[in-house]
Amino acid sequence: MFHAIDHPLIAEELTKLRNPECPSPEFRQRVRRIASLMAPSVTANLETIVVPCHTPLEITSGSQVAREIILVPVLRAGLGFLDGFLDLIPQASVVHIGLARNEQTLQPEPYYLKHPPVLGESEIIILDPMLATGGSAIEAVRSLRDAGARHIRFACLVAAPEGVAALEDAFPGLAIYAACLDRCLNDSGYILPGLGDAGDRLFGTCG
Tens-of-pLDDT digits for all 207 residues of the chain? Predict the structure, then answer.
């Protein structure tokens, strides 16, 4: 269930993000704007319930999202993707998940996961700017499911077909949203054409 969000303002922001001359402060602001532009599409099919709505003149019926929304940025790059979603969903809770590569198995392993005691009735949106090989995304979904989460969706800036295929194979039916589906991965596992290491560019730690 892959969804590429086709929007001219997102496409323009992404074009400027790809430029290696885009400095970190500008990069962070553009990522934030893309996240805000993506948020309506990522949340468009959330379940709602009917509630009473008091106006100055009468009582009518309104709607509200049926389940609590929890945003889950994958450390560290996911932090740069978080604020744009919070701008649109300020009532959301935030759960952090940290993943590190095991140097023996070369697989991502969670080193930090802080969440409410009950996740099963919440809408979980995992945030990670890059979906490359899919390893980190798969581990993030698995960790949250093991913690009881049942309603999970994944949002990223840029995805590679290999990562999308791996995530869909691991979790059939999982909704995946991206600002763009790029061409492929290179031999080092970087997305092409991509935008480089999102974490380094967000936080100014490029070599």
Answer: 999 999 999 999 999 999 999 999 999 999 999 999 999 999 999 999 999 999 999 999 999 999 999 999 998 889 999 999 999 999 999 999 988 776 666 578 888 887 777 788 899 999 999 999 999 999 999 999 998 999 999 999 999 999 999 999 999 999 999 999 999 999 988 899 999 888 889 988 875
Domain count, the chain: 1
For position 31, which CATH number holds? 3.40.50.2020
Is residue 55 one of the residues assigned to a domain? no
State both tokens at 28: 């962070």
At 174, list the tokens: 């999982």
User: Is the Cβ–Cβ distance between 35 and 90 less than 8 Å?
Assistant: no
| pTM (predicted TM-score) | 0.92
